[in-house]
């Protein structure tokens, strides 16, 4: 139990699907992050409910927002650097973001208050997807600047034992696709060598995230 490499395995048989929990990270046989994201959101909501009196108190609004981002978002975004987000995953995360602000301001869904109005009340913008993209960029930039096993895995230099066949339809989204560089991996790798410019590039990019389904 005290070993750092201890694996807590939970096997759930459901139509031949298997789910593994490895170092607090939920892995599924389809390689998608949807189950992990839903699990993280559920844990974050439970943590919010435990400290609901604090987050909905009469403390300063900016202080309460910092508390939510520090304690609640940290739970929801654990391991977000490795997520490959589809459109449905992005919608789940944005819904969770609005859930936090609505609960913090005690706005019920029966009040029929639009999301734009909620954001105005808390003086915020939709920011959770940009936060994930920024974290992912910092982590991937760190990996690309090193010569390590993880870098070889990202570059596809490690051969697997399972024969992969071409699937019908659109190509599945990859982890590096979220960085939005259409000039290819080589240009991305070259740009990552300059740590300061690499981070500034993603700090400036605060625009809306376009939902693309893969």
TrEMBL record:
Name of the featured protein: Reverse transcriptase domain-containing protein
């Amino acid at each position: 139990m005290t070993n750092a490499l201890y694996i807590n395995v939970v096997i759930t048989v459901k139509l031949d699907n298997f789910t593994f929990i490895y170092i607090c990270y939920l892995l599924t046989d389809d390689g998608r992050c949807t189950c992990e994201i839903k699990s993280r959101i559920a844990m974050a909501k439970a943590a919010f409910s435990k400290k609901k009196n604090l987050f909905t108190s009469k403390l300063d609004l900016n202080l309460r927002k910092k508390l939510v981002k520090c304690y609640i978002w940290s739970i929801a975004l654990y391991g977000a650097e490795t997520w490959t987000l589809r459109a449905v995953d992005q919608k789940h995360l944005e819904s969770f973001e609005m859930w936090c602000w609505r609960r913090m301001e005690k706005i019920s869904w029966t009040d029929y208050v639009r999301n734009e109005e909620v954001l105005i009340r808390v003086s915020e913008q939709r920011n959770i997807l940009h936060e994930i993209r920024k974290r992912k960029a910092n982590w991937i930039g760190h990996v690309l600047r090193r010569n390590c096993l993880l870098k070889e895995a990202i570059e596809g230099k490690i051969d697997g034992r399972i024969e992969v066949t071409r699937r019908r339809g659109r190509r599945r989204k990859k982890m590096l696709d979220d960085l939005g560089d259409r000039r290819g991996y080589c240009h991305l790798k070259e740009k990552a060598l300059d740590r300061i410019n690499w981070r500034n590039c993603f700090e400036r990019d605060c625009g809306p995230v376009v939902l693309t389904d893969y």
